[in-house]
Design a protein that fits this description.
The protein is mainly β and 144 residues long. A seven-stranded antiparallel beta sheet has the order 2-1-7-8-9-6-3. It has a two-stranded antiparallel sheet with strand order 4-5. The longest helix has 10 residues. The mean pLDDT is 97.
């Protein structure tokens, strides 16, 4: 059977403006995107009569995890200004709808707020930056 694997070129990270209808702006010069790192807690439900002294667990709360984005850092561009402005937001205003769009038309949709923005200026390489977003609520994978 032939593989259906593809390379990541053409994957886009987008941020919504909160308007109705919502307009999504594509992040520029993105070099790597790590989609939501979802997890679920396991809750220890062991009790005095657990069979044969084996621990018992039940599924706990789910967590949408984090999304990370690496990019070329261009200090004077609109992307750098937008991320700095977003980091200044507090409360509900800091939560924005996001999308990670794949070339086949599928996409992850989620709400998230910026938790980290780290520009890097090495002496012997390109200027780069990374941004980390905390997912709040349920991320969804919409298939094309």
């Amino acid at each position: 059977m032939t593989t259906e694997a593809t390379v990541g070129i053409g994957v886009l990270f987008k941020t919504g403006d909160g308007a109705v209808p919502e307009v999504f702006t594509t992040g520029v010069e993105i070099t790597n995107i790590t989609p939501p790192s979802m997890s679920r807690d396991s809750v220890d439900a062991t009790h005095e009569l657990s069979p044969n002294s084996w621990r018992e667990f039940i599924p706990g709360l789910k967590d949408g995890g984090e999304v990370s984005v690496d990019m070329n850092f261009v200090p004077g561009n609109a992307e750098a200004a937008a991320l700095m402005a977003e980091f200044a937001l507090d409360g509900a205003a800091a939560i924005k709808n996001r999308r990670i769009e794949f070339p086949d038309g599928s996409y992850f949709a989620f709400a998230a707020f910026l938790t980290g923005y780290e520009p890097d200026a090495p002496i012997d390489d390109k200027l780069a930056a990374s941004a980390t977003f905390k997912v709040t609520g349920e991320p969804t994978l919409v298939q094309a």
